[in-house]
Amino acid sequence: MLPKQYRLKNRSAFKATYKVKNSSHMGGVTLFAGILKKEDYPTKVGFVVSKKVHKRAVKRNRLKRLMRESYRLLLKDGNLGNSQKYMSLVFVGSEKALGKSFSEISSIIEILLKRL
User: 91 vs 116, which has greater pLDDT?
Assistant: First the structure.
């Protein structure tokens, strides 16, 4: 689980991140990046899988867990690239990502973070 200081929680924070329209997409996962930071504090990260993707909460939560864990491992290793320059990040899962394994999701997230 991600430490509390790295979690994006407020609805307004999610909306502000989407509003910037700085995004990239790959393999069923879309990454939205917020505005650039001016001060030195941790980047907040959110994970979203819509109910339209799959009606079963178990499937949606599994995809969120995979994305969250892969980000946590990258954070632990320090392989986040330029993503630490942004105030907030939101990972959005789609139908294409539902059947993928942890290693596939992990590589997708790593590539998306390096693209920023």
Answer: 91
